[in-house]
Amino acid sequence: MLTHAAANLPFPDDIGMNPAHYGVHVEAQHSDGTGHTLLRLGPCTQTWLACHDADRLSTELEGEAVTAIPGFTVTAKDAPFDVSDHESCTDPHGADAAALLADAFAGVSA
Q1: 35: containing domain
Q2: Threshold 0.70, pTM exceeds
Q3: Cα(25)–Cα(75) distance, rounded to whole angstroms?
Q4: Of 5, 80, 91, 105, which is least surrounded by CB within 10 A?
Q5: Which residues contact 60 (CB under 8 A, 6 or more apart)?
Q6: Are 104 and 38 in contact (CB under 8 A)?
């Protein structure tokens, strides 16, 4: 059986599901399990974009693991994007994720 693309057919406009969106959360966790989210990026319309951004931020964090926020472990991970909570997210498109991360740390330090 051919798919729509292989058969050169247009894709249906509505397949009965809402589009999926993904994001990235940068979180600071204390050793006692408490913590908070420092930065939320989103939406990304493809999971690989969110994974790519999370991996890039994790690489940035590796070099700052001890000094970023003393006493906390800071991690970046891809996560579902909650459209109803979009105001708490930063749009990653055209933005430098490392600069956004630096701004988030500056906000915690201030």
Answers
A1: 22-81+90-104
A2: no
A3: 8
A4: 5
A5: 97, 98, 101
A6: yes
